[in-house]
Design goal:
It is a single chain. Helices cover 38% and strands 14% of the residues. Helix 9 links the parallel strand 6 and strand 7. The protein starts with 8 loop residues before the first strand and ends in a 9-residue tail after the last helix. It contains ten helices and seven strands. Strands 1-2-3-4-5-6-7 form a seven-stranded mixed β-sheet. The radius of gyration is 18 Å and the shape is globular. Helix 1 packs parallel to helix 2 and helix 7 runs parallel beside helix 8. By secondary structure, it is α/β, with parallel strands linked by helices. Bound molecules: adenosine monophosphate (AMP), fe (iii) ion (2 copies) and zinc ion. The site of adenosine monophosphate has 11 residues, from helix 5 and helix 6.
Amino acid sequence: MSVPFHGPSDLHLHSDRSDGTEPPAGVMASVHRAGLRTVALTDHDTTSGWAEAADAAVSLGMTFLPGMELSARHEWRSVHVLGYLFDPDDEAVRAVTDRIRSSRLTRAREMADRIGRDFDLSWDDVQAQTAVGATVGRPHLADALVAIGVVRDRGEAFAGILHPRSDYYVALYAPDPVTAVAAITDAGGVAIIAHPAGRAGLLPKRIVDGMLDAGLAGFELGHRENVEPALGELRRLVAERDLIVTGSSDYHGLGKPNQPGEHTTSDEMVARIIAAGTGSAPVHP
Ligand code: AMP
Ligand code: FE
Ligand code: FE
Ligand code: ZN
């Protein structure tokens, strides 16, 4: 019954439908060149790149998993929930992603206004860095600041002007992590917490338990931002509960140093994701 696929697999990639720098087909060409053979497109809060990416992936002989990185928030910290194989037309998923994207737009304009009081930055400059219909975010503000010569790269912008503690920062609307997991899971998808062991440390146990109760399937343990000792704690939780573990690059084209395939997901884990996802189907060559 199962259709054959094989790795190397990288299940966390961004195109210019969010904050990557290449169109979906360009991302597929880049990651194929890097040797990957099973991939997912996971733009922030949008599924608009799926069709283009699937066509490109399949024509290159790769297996494609539809995905998304859904923005969530617990108190002050942002939580990214990767969703795979969910139904993109599900009402709750559409409602929450529409609301996030609309809040992102208002928020980016407000940040551009605030920055514009001190630097020669206009909303036009930001739009010039944002593909039509893309999920806008701080990376596009960063690219605009690079274009007008205020900073050298995205990293410098994030360390200063765009930092959450900067006076220019504005928060965006994002659902709580349990709601985010429930939206993906109820739409037939597989929910995995992206880069769960970053510098901010682990989410409180109560929140992780709530996410597991809502159907959370696993953790992206292979990611350059994860650090010990949080990583070790999650390894223990995963073993105890037999959860899914992924490893991925979080490739953003030229927007981040992350290189395709720098972390990968095992064939066994990809098979578990494919077996669990019922809201949409993988696309095979
Ligand atoms: P936002 O969701 O609009 O607040 O922006 C967060 C996004 O910015 C994340 O998706 C990251 O991919 C990206 N990001 C965060 N820090 C950096 C950095 N230092 N360099 C490049 N991109 C970053
Ligand atoms: Fe991003
Ligand atoms: Fe993320
Ligand atoms: Zn990401």
